[in-house]
Write a structure and sequence with these properties.
The structure is a single chain. The protein has one domain. About 15% of the residues lie in helices and about 25% in strands. It is built from 2 helices and 8 strands. The chain has helices spanning about 5-15, 60-65; strands at about 25-30, 35-40, 45-50, 70, 80-85, 90-95, 100, 120-125. The strands form 3 sheets. Strands 4, 5, 6 and 7 form a 4-stranded antiparallel β-sheet that branches. Strand 6 (about 90-95) and strand 7 (about 100) form a beta hairpin.
Length: about 130
Amino acid sequence: MSHLVRIAAGLLIAGLALPAFAADPAKTATTAKGPALTDAKGMTLYTFDKDEAGKSVCNGPCAVNWPPFAAAADAKAEGKYTVVTREDGSKQWAYGGKPLYTWKNDTKAGDTTGDGVNSVWHIATP
């Protein structure tokens, strides 16, 4: 048995848990338009050209059409993922500093109908 396995076994026997590693909030999937970031349900995530670095400007009716990819109030940034605070105080995931959204007209996992809307919405790519 390797040294690391013996330590892990000892911690488990002692009733101590090993530290958990946070999973990325988004997944990567292959769509008809190539790789895309998706939520846990496989719905494509998008970015908005009018957003400012680390800040969403899609509020009100915009956020009804483009629901923000919500983050828990205590979510922690990790790697390329960050958390931005929205105008209403809620939290939203961002990737590479760009807030992430789903599109209300995508009806099933893998849909990419929001790509190119008004020339300012784009598939979020890993």
